[in-house]
Amino acid sequence: MTEGSSRDEQVGFHKGALSTLAKEREEMAKIVSIVEQLMQMHVKALKDLGVDLVAQAQQSRQDQGTQQKNPMAPSEQLDELLRK
What is the pTM assigned to this prediction? Predict the structure, then answer.
C-alpha cells in the first residue's frame, strides 16, 4: 500500500488479505487431515501384514545409539522410518 492510500483503503486491503489467508489456512488443514488419514490407512495395512513400524523405529534408534528420553509420537516414528 502506498502512502497516498486512504486509511479506509488500507483497512480494506488488510481485511481482505486476512480473509483470503484464513480460507487458505482452512484448505491447508483439510489437506493435512486427508494426508494423515491416508498415512494411517497405510500404517494399518502394514500392521495387518505383520509389519510393526513402532518396533522398527525403536530398533533403528537403538542401532544408531540415539535412544531418546522422551519417546517419539507414532507419526514422528513413521516419519523417521520413511526418511531412510
Answer: 0.61
